Amino acid sequence: MVPANALSTGAVFAMTPLMAQLTENIAFYEQQAKSGSIDPFYYDRLMVYYRKHKEYKKELILINKALKTFADHFKKQTDEILAVAKSKAAIKRLSEKINRSAGLVDKKGNPHYMPEPMVRWIKRKKTVQEKISRSKSL
Questions:
Q1: H helix runs in the chain, sequence order
Q2: What is the per-residue pLDDT across 28-49, written as a single tens digit (0 to 9) for each?
Q3: 8 Å CB contact between 114 and 40
Q4: pTM of the predicted model, to two decimals?
Q5: What φ, ψ does residue 34 adopt, rounded to 5°?
Q6: d(CA 30, CA 12)
Q7: What does DSSP assign to residue 86?
Q8: 57 with 132: CB under 8 angstroms?
Q9: Rounded to the nearest 5 degrees, what angle is found at the Cα of 106, between the Cα atoms of 102 and 109?
Q10: CB neighbours (10 Å) of residue 121?
Q11: Does the pLDDT at position 102 exceed 60?
Q12: What does the angle CA 92 – CA 96 – CA 99 come to, to the nearest 5 degrees?
């Protein structure tokens, strides 16, 4: 039942523009994710949206795309830094020694440190995969 004063204030009709704006935002976030945006905000908001609507397969696809996009971006960033250097081999050797001595990489050169959104997304990916496998077994 709607209160009598709600109709005169327009409170009931205030949800319709908000819902339209949410739909526009989701479409914009999907567009940004498809274009390979590097801002984690778009990916996070879409993941939350998919999670709330229990669209786990879409969320898993999005997480994989986000992880690939960010990994490619960080690799490209390091390649650009090395491309500018005059002595690439010396810089690479020094970087490896510094990383090993600081404990940032293991003996094989695999990094211990990952940038923040990627750690969170990898953890979420495991959870989503478990939810998908549980739903298949039912």
A1: 4-9, 15-35, 40-52, 56-84, 88-102, 116-137
A2: 999 999 999 999 999 999 999 9
A3: no
A4: 0.73
A5: -65, -35
A6: 29
A7: S
A8: yes
A9: 100
A10: 21
A11: yes
A12: 135
Please state the φ and ψ torsions of residue 103, each to the nearest 5 degrees.
80, 20
Distance CA 50, CA 41 (A): 14
Region 65-72 average pLDDT: 94
Which one-letter amino acid corresponds to residue 21? Answer: Q
Sole residue written with tokens 């905000």 = 41
Q: Considering Cα of 15, then 17, then 23, then 28, what sign does the dihedral take?
A: negative
For residue 76, what are its two tokens? 């490209």
* More confident call, 46 vs 136: 46
The set of residues, in sequence order, having a beta carbon less than 8 Å from that of 117 and lying 6+ positions away, is 40, 43, 44, 66, 70
Measure the CA–CA gap between 67 and 47, rounded to whole angstroms: 13
Q: Could you tell me which of 112, 129, 111, 114 has the C-alpha nearest to residue 63?
A: 129
Coil, helix or strand at residue 111: strand
Angle in degrees, CA 115, 110, 100, rounded to 5: 95
